[in-house]
């Protein structure tokens, strides 16, 4: 249903990653949408184009911008070439279309008209269901077709490993890899250097390539360790590549850097070797003897890796260098030490941090002793906590004033809604206009209610006043366990109370905190609950320090 006051029109267009290569696909959609808008005598006010994004997800930049623009009510019609441009999945189509209609926006599909009535809705869902079924069939046939080809030794995939060109298939020949002479020489050099006795592993190989000025495919002289590892492990160089080696999955952990993913299944999981399908006959770059020698060296290094040697580090994940980099534990002549990760992260480039290594026992024992010393002075902790209450009292009053202001605004919105209903009753405006205005008020109400909840949560997190006796009892219960704690229990206690250990030269600063009462150690329980410094209801943070 359209708004009474005519506004403008917009269009949405989308191509998938596979269709992106053919620019005509997106251009034809854009032109068809613009043509329909012109023919209907309407004004195009904006356009939304997601080029190269999967239709299986709604998480697309331009679609999200379009959905956000609904609240501004600058248009009353959306042109889309076909429903599958909106989404490949019917339930997503219905969800977004319901959102469009909620704001009184009409959806016009160019390829096929669907009336806005029960019959039209039924037809739309039937067409969508059939389209989903056809897509599933196409995907299954495509998968089976690829499987048949690779089982017959036909190479699939147009992105070749380093050292090869990909020659596209022709009418008379299948696609194949051809040796890239310049890159192949680099591959041979990589294996030759790696197999030499002077090279300990991948990191020293990277450093040697940098010294020699050997360039990557992109022209850089800095080789990533992961890239070199893939080259060393790649059996394609001895004539056999594999298909079906990885499974495409939706990532379990969302990236904080990439908000919009072009593919839904953007993660990869290595399949078991039984599922790999070998494709032989690839041009050979190195000998099998060289390849086997390199694999043996990788296996030997993995077995001797310091990551596989069990050393005990009390401050794992908590200790930092003064330069800001994290410390990591490593053995030096059979003794565990802490070392700044600056050199490791910058390798093979020169390090910039001059912090020396630290004996693990000295730092661990120093931090543990400082913690035990704090347990002996509960009155210092009590004074620190109650000293914060004065500042928090002012914060509490400020929060309460903000909550009162929100309550007034909520009451005002309720009054405005009642007046809208009365105006509609008096036939001042139409039912559609009433719905639109109430939607605006409802959005404002939701924002205010959410803000009120946040402020109420802030009030709950206010630091409680603690007596000397409460803190003393608290610390006594901890001391009972801490004085006889083994290494694992020490580690749990430190993680519970210490947020960060920063080392600058021989100076050590410890950022410690008192967890909430809910995390008090129980003499009956052998479990110590984890906590954090800033996001929990901790009573306070304090700094401890010592020198070594």
Automatic annotation (TrEMBL):
Alphabetical list of SUPFAM superfamilies matching this protein: Resolvase-like (SSF53041)
CDD domains xrefs: Ser_Recombinase
Coiled-coil region: 389-458
Residue ranges of domain Resolvase/invertase-type recombinase catalytic in the record: 8-153
Coiled coil in keyword set: yes
Cited PROSITE patterns: RECOMBINASE_DNA_BIND (PS51737), RECOMBINASES_3 (PS51736)
Ranges for domain Recombinase: 161-304
Keywords in alphabetical order: Coiled coil
MF terms in GO: DNA binding; DNA strand exchange activity
First and last residue of the signal peptide: none
Annotated protein name in UniProt: DNA recombinase
Source organism per UniProt: Candidatus Harrisonbacteria bacterium RIFOXYD1_FULL_40_9
